[in-house]
Design brief:
- By secondary structure, the chain is α/β, with parallel strands linked by helices.
- It folds into 3 domains: 103 residues, Sandwich (Immunoglobulin-like); 82 residues, Sandwich (Immunoglobulin-like); 208 residues, Metallo-dependent phosphatases (Purple Acid Phosphatase, chain A, domain 2, 4-Layer Sandwich).
- Helices cover 14% and strands 31% of the residues.
- The strands form 8 sheets. Strands 1, 2, 3, 4, 5, 6, 7, 8 and 9 form a 9-stranded mixed β-sheet that branches. Strands 10, 11, 14, 16, 20 and 21 form a 6-stranded mixed β-sheet that branches. Strands 13-12-15-19 form a 4-stranded antiparallel β-sheet, covered by helices on one side.
- The longest helix has 17 residues.
- The protein is globular.
- It starts with 25 loop residues before the first strand and ends in a 16-residue tail after the last strand.
Amino acid sequence: MKKNYFCKLLASILLVGLGCVTLVQCGGSGGETPVADEFDVSFVLPSRIEAAPEGLIEFVVKDGKAPLQSDVFMMTASDGISFNCNIESVSSDKFSVRLYKSATSGSYQVFLKRGQRKKSCGNTVLSIVKSIDFTPDKNTTVWGVVTCGDKGVPDVVVSDGVLVTKTDSKGIYQLPSEKKWNYVFISVPSGYEVPSKGVLPQFHAYLGADASSIERQDFELTYVGDQSKHKMLFLGDMHLANRTNDKAQFAVFAKDFNSYRSNHKSEKVYAMTLGDMTWDIYWYDRSYSFPQYLDEINGQVSGIQIFHTMGNHDNDYMLKGAIGTFGADYDASARYVREIAPTYYSFNIGKVHYVVLDDIDCSKYVGGNRDYVKTFTSEQLEWLEKDLSYVDKSTPLVLTTHAQIFSPVAGDTYKTAVGSVSQLFDVLKGYNAHFVTGHTHVIYNINPTESAR
């Protein structure tokens, strides 16, 4: 089931990077594909690595099984982009690599290449950081600096999906995070943009250390000036799956999309999806999921940031393996969170505060079924209340969800279609809030002051 409910709005309508561990002069990989192998090399790959730009990183060799200096580190991001890195020095107990100048913070799978042979070394999270004279508070587990150029940016809202804070006068934030979601994100302030990886704005970063360990994640902003006159384009229910000629249809859409942008070059143009970019069944039946979706959209659209909303078909309905500590809804969203974005977050463009919410609860998923409920979790509503505590009541809100908030009953009569709506409206009380949703594949406008029930 899907949905496309549009509210007409105002006219003002990561780094998952390439990274790795110990790197050295690296360059984009290409050419032949190495053959999987297990040659005898053993070293400690930390779950998380912090390094200065182009910094030297050292790895501890285990049992004297060091790599050859002629071996190459291969770092592969979740989008499939790989970088080859030459080892700089080797001894019997350690070796070092120089971080490639274009490496960015993010999650990486690490390989060691020896000619045409390739050994899998595990996964790590790379964080690119600059030296700073600062000692985090005792209970802090996640901290960092939000900068624009060489200056820290104050009052930027930062969250781990549970806690919400803002940067101090030097652009520094601290969170005593329990790291449930294993990420931290900023609510991009008005007048700024974050770097992009293809169409994905890099406003969030993945965490790699355990909940008791302190780690640092920095964010970089670019000042773009006044965004008051901007356009936000909403993209609903693409359902890309490489079937029934959908890729050809998407190419036609992309042509129109790019043409519209070309005709509005005098304005800043952004976009938001409304969920169901993919189709969960065909993740398995046709091996088409988020990496293939990103290849498709990045191949046809460029030069625009697209913020994503999660749909029911963007959850993993198979849930192979045991359900984890945080339940099926958490596990079903794991691939989306890892490869696209957090399931809920906020950002600011011009005078508008945008909020992305997730109203698809997959807590009843057991592997193979698709028994979801349209509702908002209490944790998400608690986060929203904290997020809005930093937003003035005079600021217009534009919220996206996948499932529609109201459904037509008859004539001009509507009913609420999602659970926890009254609790949501309590949080939004006093704000001028507009919703844009998908899921139905039908376009209609609703004003709740009409005969909604």
